[in-house]
Amino acid sequence: MEDTSPARTEASPAVIVARGAKKHYGPIRAVDGVDLEIGAGELFGLIGHNGAGKSTMFKMMLGLIPASAGEIRIDGAAVAGNGDFRAVRRKIGYLPENVVLYDNLTGLETLHFFARLKGVPTAGAPALLERVGLAEAARRRVREYSKGMRQRLGFAQALLGNPRILFLDEPTTGLDPEAIRSFYAILRQLKGTGVTTVITSHILAEIQERVDRLAIMTAGKIQACGTVQALREQMDLPLWFTVRVAPEDFAAVRAALGHLPVGAVEARDDHVAVQCRRDAKMAVIEALASLDGKVRDLTVREPSLEDVFFGFSD
Ligand SMILES: Nc1ncnc2c1ncn2[C@@H]1O[C@H](COP(=O)(O)OP(=O)(O)OP(=O)(O)O)[C@@H](O)[C@H]1O
User: Fold this and answer.
1) Distance, CA 30 to ligand 1 centroid (Å)?
2) Using a 6 Å cutoff on CB, does residue 96 contact ligand 1?
3) Distance between Cα 113 and ligand 1 center (Å)
4) Which of ligand 1's atoms lies nearest the C-alpha of 26?
């Protein structure tokens, strides 16, 4: 694995460290030698296909299942059942992929229940419900909650006791766009107070603008790790320009780009789409700027995280 974001460890001490972490179930290598360092206050994404090993990695980091080999440290303490780790465990909030809630309890009772389990004061529960947008539903039974409301309640549960480290396994499943926005706004506020968050998601478009760094996991291994931009550069995927020009100027665009290492140049209704190598980007912009006002508008589309993901994981 190549970490393409060297600035990370210099800027903040590593709070989560995995070295050669493995989890094998008989012949199944659910996690197969993962090295990872996540810094204090980082918002870190873990993405991968179904069955890639993300949830297993989470469970190992939380000490819920023992590693078959390797070492994981959280806040300096080895993840194991000893006293040191129990103290660290209290600083961790966890939202599992399928949070188990009790239908007969109200939202407020649910938080009280989890607060007692976690050994933290119940007094913060109403404020947490307010924070996740469930204040109005606090006294309604969970049975009546929609999928998104249950997910928000699960998130509130993870925030009990003001954790310093959060593990959120597909936290935005079932949330509407507005709820997704508020969810990430909360994560940003928490990041501002130094909270470290690790999040998994299958919605790559949602995660790509929001995490500081991410790791792409395939078949139990980390294939790549870094900022979205660093991964784009590492993959060296082409960019797309959309050049808005009048149809009579299409030929001039082609001529201006003729000497450059550009790929496809396709004339569409009111624009020309140009695919170009990343290292030719500035030369293309200069060539278009020389067209003497013919270009009405210009947009550059970077490869999406989805493009990068398929590049690394296929
Ligand atoms: N308790 C278990 N016993 C046997 N195999 C398991 C167990 N838990 C997980 N696995 C296997 O380990 C692999 C990784 O599973 P895991 O749940 O970690 O994937 P994931 O990346 O979280 O997938 P998804 O995106 O579908 O949630 C899969 O092949 C899964 O079948």
Assistant:
1) 6
2) no
3) 28
4) 4
268-274: which pairs have CB atoms within 8 A and are 24 or more residues apart? Answer: 270/244, 270/245, 270/246, 271/242, 271/243, 271/244, 271/245, 272/242, 272/243, 272/245, 273/240, 273/241, 273/242, 273/243, 274/240, 274/241, 274/243
Alpha helices in 73-227 (DSSP H): 83-89, 107-118, 125-131, 147-159, 177-192, 204-208
Q: Is there an atom of ligand 1 within 6 Å of 65 CB? A: no
Residue 127, token pair as written in the block: 């404020």
pLDDT in tens, the chain (314 residues): 444 443 444 556 899 999 999 999 999 999 999 999 999 999 999 999 999 999 999 999 999 999 999 999 999 889 976 667 778 888 999 999 888 999 999 999 999 999 999 889 999 999 999 999 999 999 999 999 999 999 999 999 999 999 999 999 999 988 899 999 999 999 999 999 999 999 998 888 889 889 999 999 999 999 999 999 899 888 888 899 999 999 898 889 889 988 888 887 888 888 889 998 888 999 999 999 888 888 999 999 988 888 888 887 76
Give me 178's structure tokens.
């507005």
pTM of the predicted structure, to 2 decimals: 0.87
ipTM (interface pTM): 0.97
